[in-house]
Amino acid sequence: MCGRSRRKRVLALVGAIAAGTVIAACGSDHAEKRSARLVPAGAKLNRLDISVTEPRPGRFRYRAPRAVRGGLVEIRFKNSGRSPRKAQLWRVGPGHSVAQALRARRPLPRWLEWAGGVGLTGPGRTGVAVQRLSAGTYYVTGIGSERRGIAPLRVTAGGSGAGLVSAADAGVTAVDYGYRVSGLEPGPASVEFRNTGKEPHHAFFAPLRDGRTLREARDFFAGKLPGPPPVDPEATRETVVLERGGRQVTRLNLESGRYALLCFVRDRAGGPPHTEKGMVAEVEVP
Ligand SMILES: [Cu+2]
Predict the structure, then answer these.
(1) If you measure from the C-alpha of residue 130 to the centroid of ligand 1, how many angstroms do you get, rounded to a whole number?
(2) How far is the CA of 245 from the centre of ligand 1 (A)?
(3) In the chain, which stretches have pLDDT less than 70?
(4) What does the pLDDT read at residue 29?
(5) What's the pTM?
(6) Which residues contact 41 (CB under 8 A, 6 or more apart)?
(7) DSSP letters along 177-239, please?
C-alpha cells in the first residue's frame, strides 16, 4: 500500500473493514517459529486442513476435505493467496443445505450458526486453532457475506468426547457488548477466545498510533474521521466469529503497544455493527 495516496489508503481500509476483511496480518518468520502451545501436550486431536487460493486478485477459492471426524479438532489453515484471509466456519443445522445457508439474510435463521475456524492469516502462512466441532454440515468462507469460492464440509461423529482444555496464557472473552482481556503478550502467543454473550462476536485488534485515541479509531472505522488513520492498518489482527457459548484456542501475534479492540459483527437479527453498541475497548500489550 506504500505507493498509494493517503486518501486511497484510508478508503481501502474503511472499505476492507466494511466488507469484513482487513489489510494485513503478517508476523515475521522468526516469530512464527516460536511455539506457543494451544492445548496440553498429549491432547487427542482430530485434524482439519483448510486452504485458500487466489486464482485472480480478489477472487478466492477455499478447499476442505469432504468429511472430517469431529470432537476436539485442530484446524490448520494455509493461505496460498496473495492477501490476508481467514477461514470462517459456518454450521448448517439438520434438514438444511449449504445452498439454503448461502441465501440466508438477517435475521439469521436459528439453524445457521457461526462456528469458529482460523483467524486472519497472512499470504504464504498457516494459522491454527483448536476447538470442538459437533457432527453436521459446515462450510468455510472468508467473511460472512461471501457466496463464491466457499468449501462445504461434513463433520462426522466418532471423535473424542473430551472437552477443550486450554494451555493458553492469554484470554479474550467477548460479551454483549464488550471484552474482557487478560495476559496478552507480544509475539505469537496462544490465546483462548470465548464468547459468553448471546450474539456472535469476533475480536479485531487495531494498533493505535502514538497520541491517537480509541474514540478516533472507532470514528475512523465508521468512516467519520478524515485525515491520517489513527491506527496502523498493516499490523491489524482479527479472530474468527464465534456464536454464543463458542470457545477456541488460537494464536495471535501482537506487537507491544496500545490497541483498539473492536467488534464489527452485527446482531443475528440485524442492526448496526457492534462498534456502534459500544463494543470497543483499549488494551495494552506490554
Ligand atoms: Cu460483537
Answers:
(1) 21
(2) 13
(3) 1-35
(4) 38
(5) 0.88
(6) none
(7) TEEEEE---SEEEEEEEEE-SSS-B--EEEEBPTT--HHHHHHHHTT---SS-SB-GGG-EE-
